[in-house]
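Researcher: Here's a chain I'd like modeled. Treat it as a single chain, no partners, no ligands.
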Amino acid sequence: MSSLANKVAVVTGGNGTLGNAFVRALSQTGARVFILGRNEEKSAKVVADFAREGLTIEAIRCDVLEEEQVNAAVDTVLSKAGRVDILVNGAGGNRAGATVGPDSSIFELGIDDFRKVNDLNLLGTVIPSIAFAKPMVEQGSGCIVNISSMAALLPISRVVGYSAAKAAVDNFTRWLAVELAAKYGEGIRVNAIAPGFFIAEQNRRLLTEEDGSLTSRGETIISQTPLKRFGEPEELMSTLLWLCDDRSSFVNGIVVPVDGGFSAFCGV
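Model: Modeled as a single isolated chain. Structure tokens:
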């Protein structure tokens, strides 16, 4: 039996493309999974889709940027399940105004959009981490997995706001791992996954044309990826399960790239 069987897991952004894969991975191991998301209709569809696969998922309406809502979600999980063992901070995203395209410049950057992208990706990780770490500290065990990006390792053109935010997520991951271990012992671990390039609804039109062929940006990414393809969401599942497994108890404060070799290739 998996060491994750009967664990209680919370996935923010669990109704998104990658979040969906995280939810499936945890649920298939026997974990009890709650998804947190702002869009009740979208979350309900995810719950129904998984039910058809024989997987029971529970959804909680929650904006991860609202502390009161996140704290209420913690209370809901504890009242229903009695504990929380795993938090996956999958909520995140980008906004057009926080990008600098080839026909614009940094001087046209939308500061409000930049702020919102940083809030969503960074504060959307910090706020749930603090809230769900409290019961983990009280029970003496827990695992937090943040979602980083290739944009954190090397700033990627155009996505200035997203790159800055994900770099901050990397730093926060390491900081929190050290902080919790130093003050509360070895039972609580914090790590992150840095996905390479995966096709999702948010970036589909940026990477592929209507006919499915690659855009110039998509071609550049593939040329820099040794495996010469985009990743499939399911290819993140084994890394997530490894980080959450009790047998990975000495793995703490790391950011794991799942990128087809993108971060290893210098381009030559």
